[in-house]
Design a protein that fits this description.
Helix content: 40-55%
CATH topology of the largest domain: TIM Barrel
Mean pLDDT: 97
Structural class: alpha/beta
Radius of gyration: 20 Å
Largest sheet: 8 strands, parallel, barrel
Bound molecules: glyoxylic acid, magnesium ion
CATH architecture of the largest domain: Alpha-Beta Barrel
CATH superfamily of the largest domain: Phosphoenolpyruvate-binding domains
CATH class of the largest domain: Alpha Beta
Low-confidence stretches: none
Shape: globular
Strand order of the largest sheet: 1-2-3-4-5-6-7-8
Distance between the termini: 36 Å
């Protein structure tokens, strides 16, 4: 029913999400000191099969040795997909050895809700066995045609699910889209060829109270291309974007932070509507534009984000 509302399940600042191969402890240490809101330690596609075990050990050590929360960061681990034999050991070892330290697990290539059910069940059991009261969250990468076909069902999984991410690289491969670029625009397409898919994922997120995060942009020597992609994602409702290179973190933080002019306009909208309400009116005008109850909701989105950034 339309009055069954799904408020945001878990608020976290996630403007920039730095991907760090867990095979590289130096990069992990740098990421911990850098300006990213979010860091995910990657055990999946950036890690060669021969390095999987060492990467898992490095991730566990970094979770235990570094005070990620104290540094104002959320730390996540991208486990391997359910179609690999690494996945169960990733969940068991990371959870058993660092489950009280990691904030979320990022599950790649989620195709059906059952994928999340399996990870959730394992995490539940390990937390129960350890007697931990913190609850590790789950985030799902939507990056296959199957995942996108089921995105509305996946978004309704509930449980620990907090966010969906659009994985443009695997998605392009799964769709057999004519490109070998990660996240760039195809000049033969009139517009952004990923628009419809990102938009579909964002709708599913917002309908069911999840954060919506845009994935990678591979050309780290093209900051303008990165910012354009981030701005398009923000316009659709994404609240952050991956950085596959440290230089992209500041770009994401900039694009996904409301500028001062936007924050002060949001405050003025709230003030003007308060004055209008005191006069028994629902709508008002501000700088020659009509504002009403919907404007108040838009303004509150800006102010909640501004507060979260200020509190960081
Ligand atoms: C991320 O994992 C992607 O495939 O884009
Ligand atoms: Mg991927």
């Amino acid at each position: 029913m339309s009055h069954t509302l799904h408020p945001l399940r878990k608020q976290r600042l996630q403007r920039s999400e730095l991907a760090v191969p867990a095979s590289n402890p130096t990069m992990i240490d740098k990421a911990a000191e850098g300006p990213a809101d979010y860091v995910f330690l990657d055990l999946e596609d950036a890690i060669a099969p021969s390095e999987k075990e060492q990467a898992r050990k490095n991730a566990i050590q970094a979770l235990n040795d570094i005070d990620w929360a104290g540094k104002g960061k959320t730390v996540s681990v991208r486990i391997n997909g359910l179609d690999t034999h690494y996945m169960y050991r990733d969940v068991v070892d990371v959870m058993e050895q660092a489950g009280s330290r990691v904030h979320t697990l990022l599950v790649p290539k989620v195709g059906v809700t059952g994928d999340l059910y399996m990870v959730e069940a394992m995490v539940n059991q390990i937390e129960q066995a350890k007697g931990w009261t913190n609850r590790v969250g789950l985030e799902a990468l939507i990056e296959t045609a199957l995942g996108m076909a089921n995105v509305e069902a996946i978004a309704q999984f509930g449980g620990r699910l907090e966010a969906l991410h659009f994985g443009v690289a695997d998605f392009a491969a799964s769709m057999r889209a004519r490109t070998t670029n990660i996240g760039g625009l195809n000049p033969h397409y009139p517009g952004d060829q990923w628009h419809a898919s990102i938009s579909r994922m964002v709708v599913a997120c917002r309908a069911y109270g999840l954060r919506a995060i845009d994935g990678p942009f591979g050309d780290f020597s093209d900051p303008d291309g990165y910012k354009d992609g981030a701005r398009r994602a923000a316009a659709l409702g994404c609240e952050g974007k991956w950085a596959i290179h440290p230089s992209q973190v500041a770009l994401a933080n900039e694009v996904f932070s409301p500028p001062d002019t936007e924050v002060s306009r949001a405050r003025r909208i709230i003030e003007e509507l308060k004055k209008a309400a005191a006069m028994g009116k629902g709508a008002a005008s501000l700088d020659g534009r009509m504002i009403d109850a919907a404007s108040e909701k838009m303004a509150m989105n800006v102010l909640v984000l501004a507060d979260a950034i200020a509190a960081r």
